[in-house]
Write a structure and sequence with these properties.
Blueprint lengths: L1 E5 L7 H14 L4 E7 L18 E5 L2 E4 L3 H12 L7 E8 L11 H11 L4 E6 L13 H17 L10 E6 L9 E4 L11 E6 L5 E6 L12 H6 L2 E7 L17
Parallel strand pairs: 1-2, 1-5, 2-4, 5-6, 6-7, 8-11
Antiparallel strand pairs: 3-4, 7-11, 9-10
Helix pairs in contact: 1-4, 2-3
Enzyme class: hydrolase
Function: Nucleotidase that shows phosphatase activity on nucleoside 5'-monophosphates.
Family: Belongs to the SurE nucleotidase family.
């Protein structure tokens, strides 16, 4: 198996090393793992692409490249430049430092990389490690992802439904904020919504008196509804959420027929 990996935390991020190990496990001794990752952190860029300016790309080592762009840029670079003659079988993005459950999925550069992989017609997976008081202070907060990541992807690949020919599935995988031995299992879950918490901004002044706004995240330890991703994660489960880039609100179509 030939695998392309990327992330949004940057090419030197510890989560990318975890993903490299997961990918090597999946690829096997005869497979190949190719890395094309952002040269600098790109958290929160979602599915942004550098449409109005070129992307500098540099070879850092064998099958390892850094691109001055978003995760989606990196997937484009991997598929249409770096691996153009030897395309990958799957795309992996992560392992993100922090969860991409619930509304976080909409902002996530990690998911942006997986979305681009799916739009290019490949099986694509976004992997994120939830952080909390039971794993954040530990020496290896990515332990749950490292221990269980490869097996979760294998199970999905073995049971993946027919994807059709248009908007293909990609998978949002979030590992719970617990040590690896305490992972309770896997839950297939819908995307949740954290009520009474959201992103905001906080104003600060620089020494020169200029005003700057810092984006702030909300409380990540809020449980979402039963059967949804963040609830499963905070209950100790790995959540797997199948997604598509089709943003149509299909449930609203019939009600809006009256405007035709």
């Amino acid at each position: 198996m030939r695998i392309l990996i990327t992330n949004d935390d940057g090419i030197n991020a510890p989560g990318l090393k975890v993903l490299e190990a997961i990918a090597q496990d999946l690829a096997g001794p005869d497979g190949e793992v190719w890395t094309v990752a952002p040269a600098f952190e790109q958290s929160g860029v979602a599915h942004c692409i550098s449409y109005t300016h070129p992307t500098l790309i540099a070879e850092m080592g064998p099958r390892r490249f850094a691109a001055e762009g978003s995760p989606a840029d990196c997937v484009l670079a991997g598929l249409h430049d770096v691996m153009v003659d030897t395309p990958p079988d799957i795309v992996l993005s992560g392992v993100n430092r922090g969860n991409n459950s619930a509304e976080n999925a909409l902002y996530s550069g990690t998911l942006g990389g997986a979305i681009e992989g799916a739009l290019q017609g490949l099986p694509a997976f976004a992997l994120s490690q939830y952080l909390g008081p039971r794993n954040f202070p530990s020496e290896n907060p990515f332990e749950a992802a490292a221990e269980h990541g490869a097996e979760v992807i294998r199970r999905i690949l073995q049971n993946a439904p027919d994807q059709g020919e248009d908007y293909r599935l990609f998978y949002n995988i979030n590992f719970p904020p617990v040590p690896a031995p305490e992972v309770a299992g896997i839950r297939v879950a819908t995307q949740g919504f954290r009520r009474d918490t959201c992103f905001s901004v906080e104003a600060h002044s620089s020494p020169s008196g200029k005003r700057f706004l810092w984006v702030k995240g909300g409380n990540q330890q809020v449980r979402t509804a039963p059967g949804t991703d963040a609830r499963a994660n905070l209950d100790g489960y790995i959540s797997v959420t199948p997604m598509r880039a089709d943003l149509t609100a299909h449930d609203a179509l019939d009600a809006l027929k009256a405007i035709e």
